[in-house]
Give the backbone structure.
Amino acid sequence: MSKIIKTTTAGGVGFLAGLLLERGLESLTGLDFVDGLFAVSGSILAALSVNKELVKAASRNIEQMFGKDPLEITESEWRQFKELNPKTAEWLEKALKI
Amino acid sequence: MLPSLGFLTSMLTGLMAKAGIVQLTKHGYMPQSTYVKAALKALEEDDLDEAIRSYQLAVKKWRPSQRTEIAAEIIASAITVRIAKLQNRVDELEGVINPKRFSRQFWRNLLPKNREALEAMREEQRGFQEAIDVLAKMKDKLNEA
């Protein structure tokens, strides 16, 4: 029983210490430390995956808006999309190097 | 044949770690990209409630980033597209239910055999209007986050 209590206490203390360290570093450096850690540990793939998901979601929106494949939209349709979704359009232009 | 204390301890630690991760996820402590990804996944599955919930978690503990701004725009745009489609159908039904006076549809609506169909259309229109209101509220909720 005492072993269980010791293990759980140690786990809890470790967790709190980690949380405090993370928060402390975040307030000192102004960095999103968990995201930073993930990036350093090679989880940059996860971020890239989010980018892929963003492109996919934006392309689905274009498809629903104009009823056709994003590759088939005209320049005026693209301008219309850009007007309604300025941030997404700008990001897509950069990401896809349009 | 009871399991050993060591096994029980490690199992308990594992369970606690799992519960801890669930709580961290629930309260927005996981990396922001986790929530953005979850929001986009929910959007793909047409689950707007979950998409908005995940988006709100993405900006609950972390500062809004370019990714969260784009995700919000994508979710808002998906809602707008749905509202537009529903509104088109509402307008279409409106033309049949309340046609111009003395138009062909106006006379057609007066026929007793069309009464039931008209009632069904009114019901359908009410349903679509309610759905539009719900979607508009969702959009407001997204903008509040």
